[in-house]
Amino acid sequence: MSPKIRRVVKLLSRLPGVGEKTAQRYVLWLLTTDASLAGDLGGELTTLRDVLGPCEKCGNVAEFVDGRCICDVCADVKRDSRLLCVVARVHDLIAIERTGSMRGRYFVLGKLLSPLEGIGPEDLPIERLVGRVRADSVTEVIVATPPSVDGEATALLLKRELGPLGVAMTRIASGVPHGGDLEFADPITMGRALAGRREL
Fold it and tell me: What is d(CA 108, CA 91) in angstroms, rounded to the nearest whole number?
């Protein structure tokens, strides 16, 4: 293979779920298909970080508009701002949105409490979350972290930090496999997990 192909394969294989063979297939396919596709893809990837960023309110992915970055969920006035669902990653937010069961708003932590990986309470955006709960007069916080050791530890931390605010705290029900990621749960399972949430 030419050095150029090797470089592109190496870059693509750094994407999650893409191995070297898959990356090589992508590169060779792009070389043999309509040339405009590679150009369009390259152009979109080049401007991706300039156009998109984390939502100022919740951390979801949003487009910059007039210097501000507010996602569609936070901009939706029909949403119940008193109901706040806390998730670990944007992938989890998307999985819950797919069910159509969540009519409140979200807060993306970005990571989970994980002492083994050196992620402590100070590494989570707890102060921003507390500020959001107060600013929106939130009455219920749904903790939708994965049912894993790190997810459960994060849920307990959130209970400790948000409990004194007098807000009702619930945890999504089981139904999502233990140790599994919310991203891969089907809509029915995720809908049942939300409907059967329990007090934390």
Answer: 10
- Structure confidence at residue 14 (pLDDT): 95
138 exposure class (CB count in 10 Å sphere: 0-12, 13-18, 19+): buried
Q: Residue 103: name the closest of 134, 142, 151, 60 by CA.
A: 142
Helix (H, G, I), strand (E, B) or coil at 196: coil
Report the pLDDT value the prediction gives residue 188, as an integer from 0 to 100: 73
Res. 189: pLDDT tops 80: no
Q: Which two tokens stand for residue 124?
A: 């989570």
Task: Report the alpha-carbon distance of residue 150 to residue 109 in Å, rounded.
Answer: 13
Closest CA to 196 of 179, 169, 167, 172: 172
Q: To the nearest whole number, what is the mean pLDDT of the chain?
A: 91
pTM metric for this prediction: 0.80
